[in-house]
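Milestone M4 deliverable, item 7.
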Amino acid sequence: MWTDLSPPTQFGNTTLNPGEQTNFTIAPHPKTPPGTYFLHISGINASEQVNSVGGKIIIIPQGSFQLVLDPEKREIEAGQSTEFIIQSIQKGGLKYPIQLKAEVSPPNLNVGVDFGRNGIKPGQSTRMTVRTLPNTPKQQFTIRVTGTAANLQEELNAVVIVR
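Output delivered:
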């Protein structure tokens, strides 16, 4: 038996006797767009006759999330720390944990970023702490926060102005 599907497919048993059944599993790639896909399964019997069956498969959206930052901007003195709250909002039943990472721009080793938790569940929040050393230059830094869950990504920017 074979299929003409591009997502990975697997049969429980590829050889059947008359009257037997098998399980059929489809594992679409996470980036497969939602939509209706047509299924065509064919098999060859002992007389080399091709038998086919068809149907359709509907891929539904897997849900998503949004990140919200509070506040969006802070001003501090060099050598101080400040905190932001990052809230995740669940959309459409997303069940995957959201991994967080931060990138400081312009890059500066005197500015560090830590999360209360690097991974949060949809609907949860965490604290992001931005720390500066006393010799941090007086300028504006943008902290780009990226949240990743499965194949979904959301970005936001926090601004820290060092006075």
